[in-house]
Amino acid sequence: MKLNWFLYELTSGETILISLLFWSLIYNEDYPIYADTYVTHGVNGLYVLIDIWITAMPVKILHVYLPFLLGLSYIIFSIIYDYSGGTNALGMPYIYSVLDWSDGVTWPLIYCGGAAVVVIIIHFIFYGCFKLRVWLYKYRKGDDNSSSSVAYEGRQSDSRDIEKN
Which domain, by its residues, includes 135? Predict the structure, then answer.
């Protein structure tokens, strides 16, 4: 279960970030839209937004560094891809126009910095959703004390354990 939790914390914020960035910065009328474009840049984000409310996966505030690991890996990959002559679906020499490293590093670094700030905000929102979800569970059960039993991570646990996270 810890691997599942790690992967959830690693990717959930990035998934929302990717959806937001694609539809706000990348997409235009000339961009070809295929079914996989909707799945990759839309359905994934929708799934995460639903998943945060229907699963009992905890979110730790201190795990905010995990999406940075994935983001840093992707930045390194995009630099290598760009300078190795890789092309995107349109035949352009970059993955996304905002990450065109061969045209100078200033704008890609600005976009990456902005993405880092947004992923922090997303993580805090997810943490707030987690806390609200635990409160709603306790409220629904009519239990205001901190010893109610809340199921998460595939096991029964004392809600005090959740509050510590």
Answer: 2-164
